[in-house]
Amino acid sequence: MRLSITAKTTIGTALIEGVLLLMLVITATHFMGNIANDNLVKRASTASKLFAATTKSAVLSFDLASLDAITDEVLTNPDIVYAKVFDVDGRLLAAAGNLGLLNRPFVEDVLVDDVNDGVYDKMSPIFAGDQTYGRVELGISISEMQKTMTKIKTWTASIAFVEMLLVGLFSIFLGRYLTKQLNVLRRGAKKINAALDSGQFDVARVPEDSNDELAEVAKAFNSLVDNLEVEYQRTQSFQNALQGLNRTLEMKVKKRTQQVEAQNEELTQINQNLKSTQQQ
User: What is the DSSP letter of 78?
Assistant: First the structure.
């Protein structure tokens, strides 16, 4: 398939821009994802440590009412879906939140990528000095973070799409601008054949109205046209001279033919006269 220079320029620029934008989108999305993951991990660690520090006195005093109140208060924080408090022997002292999440086996998540149920699970021990008296478990929903990441990806992809459209339009205008003079040269080249037949070489000349490399090409093209016109005129002059010589030669041949015919007629008449004389 034959492509014009404009099409090649547009496709080439679009491909380069597309690859760069794809790399940018992937890098930006990965970077934003890492930031969101780090923030969630830090938030979960801080929240669980604060929860453990807040419940320490109630655990040491075995104040179940206070533990229930603290656990309910923890759930007022955004995205925390469950909270549990255990003593050192693993007995549940207080719990609040989604029953399905409370009854499932607890598996602590280290990274956000480890989450497979939409909840980031975090555990912190309850310390008093160097002694461990229990632990707390928290579950933080990552649905909002996932929605935010989806929006970021959508916005980034939209920006990249708009950028591709703008680059495509710019490439088309740039290609047309760059190939405008080339198209003029192409039309001029096509007119040379007609000029060779008609002798009108002015129609084949192209304008030299720019100050770039294409203007130099246009000057060289016009110089070629000038040389062709000179050669055409020289050829026409030779042809005219040759035609004149041919006409002169034809006239001489015709005249000589007439003289020979006249002489032949004269000789024929003399022969006839001689024959008549001899017969008498």
Answer: T
**Beta-carbon neighbour count of residue 215 at 10 Å?**
15
* Distance (Å, whole) CA 160 – CA 173: 20
CA distance 75 to 83: 7
pLDDT at 280: 62
Q: Which of 37, 23, 35, 11 is nearest to 156 (CA)?
A: 23
pLDDT in tens, 86-104: 999 999 999 999 888 888 8
What pLDDT is recorded for position 2? Answer: 64
Find the DSSP H helices in the chain.
5-60, 64-74, 99-103, 143-198, 213-279
For the chain, the average pLDDT equals 82
Q: Which two tokens stand for residue 43?
A: 């938030």
pTM over 0.70: no
For residues 160 and 24, the answer to whether their CB atoms sit within 8 Å is yes
Q: Which tokens is 265 given? A: 């007629």
Query: Are residues 69 and 196 in contact, defined by beta-carbon separation less than 8 angstroms?
Result: no
